[in-house]
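Let us practice reading a record.
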Amino acid sequence: MTFLERYGPWALIAGASEGVGRTFAETLAQRGLNVVLVARREHVLNEVASGIEQRYGVKTRTLAIDLANADAAIQVQNAVNDIEVGFLVYCAGADSNYMPFLESPLSVAESMVHRNCNLPVQLCHHFCAPMVSKGKGAVVILGSGAAFAGASNMVAYAASKAFDMVFAEALFCELKPKGVDVLGLILGETDTPALRRLRHNLGLAMGPNEAVKGAETPAYVVDDCLAHLTDGPIRLANRKMRWGLRFLFPFSRNFIVSLMDKANKKVMGKG
């Protein structure tokens, strides 16, 4: 089965205007998938879509939706109910503030939880059912190394990314036997426009477009993801993080998930 046959005909990428999300859209289009691009800035999405159509000859659809809105999932679903989505990438929910929990309005944390927890659950519940019925498809949920432990200035962000990681792991356990690939893609430091802007705002870079030395590129992250798409539930898409976490966590997340899933099935009489 070809990549297009297994994961097409459409991919939906939430957070597709720049960085890793945009690179996902470009790479999946290069592999023959039509792409639905979701983000807030309509003019940027249109530019990305136009370039993709010209370079790869696939169809595109742009959805200018603020994923912080309570009805964002419904908006997405209604906009694509006439097409078959076989590849879902959830790449939204980065933290652009990096501020202490109590120094930001409660609404900032609530918005983070909604984008990183509610939306992935809602979209996966909607789009994974048709994938299971066909016995094929893929879901990639982007996480962060912040999920492994709490730290200052990342209270809601780290907690929500921990949710994403465990959600992807559990979804993998349920859907992988039914033919759907699920991967929690854990990012370390990645040279994205969002990180460049944040570093500039924090006084760590001379300008908002200064490259982040030593960070992985979005192209590396996406290529690494697709190379390990069937090796879920978790992939650490950062070489330094893969090396460093061996000392903090001698057992891999995938090994722990395997043990937990087997134990759970045994306890519940399904193993």
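A brief commentary: The chain has ten helices and seven strands.
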